[in-house]
Amino acid sequence: MTTLKVHTIESAPEESKALLEQSVKSFGMLPGLHGVLASSPEALEAYKTLHNLFQNTSFDAEELTVVWQTINVEHECHYCVPAHTAIAHMMKVNPELTEALRNRTAMPNEKLQVLHDFTLKVTRNRGHVTQEDLNTFYEAGYGERQVLDIILGLSQKVISNYTNHIANTPVDAPFQKFAWEPKTV
User: Fold this and answer.
1) Which CATH class, in words, describes the domain spanning 60-178?
2) Is residue 185 helix, strand or coil?
């Protein structure tokens, strides 16, 4: 098992302290992921910037959740799945959708299923998708902007998921009730 240091505001490099203070103001606590990323002020800033940019994409709350959780579950992130379950609850996303994502079951409607399937293909195939994949995505009502928005979300999730794997980031207390482990197939 690997671990990296989870910084507090006091222990963090000077360049990370203001970013961590913003995290506390935004979340009412210092998320462990932010504490780990604080060892690299640039990584912390990149993650926070990508997170904010992705939240402001063309996706609504359900679609954001589908992209985030599809990637989190595929990457088997012990930290991000519970964190984004809590975020989905805060965003008033239907719990049936959240549970379907956590359990790798069907989405509640065809459009979200297409978004899930396309996000999964982009993630698994490292961006190599077919024209048929794109056509199916477009026929569901999405466009080129949403293709690029998924890539933005994936960029954010690579930073957090990979960091959490290497750091073995402890799940924060508010997220522990949403603890998750990958299903063995």
Assistant:
1) mainly alpha
2) coil
**Tokens coding 118:** 């396309």
The radius of gyration computed from the CA coordinates of the chain, to the nearest angstrom, equals 16
Give the length of the chain.
185
Coil, strand or helix at 16: helix
Contact (CB, 8 A) for 79 and 171: yes
Q: How many CB atoms lie within 10 A of CB 130?
A: 10
Positive or negative, the CA dihedral 7, 13, 16, 21 is positive
Whether the predicted pLDDT of 166 surpasses 70:
yes
Q: Give how far Cα 166 sits from Cα of 32, 47, 130, 158, Å.
A: 13, 16, 32, 12
Q: State yes or no: pLDDT of 185 exceeds 70.
A: no
Rounded CA separation 86/60 (Å):
17
Domain borders along the chain are 14-54, 60-178
pTM recorded for the entire structure = 0.95
CA angle (77, 98, 112) in 5-degree steps: 105
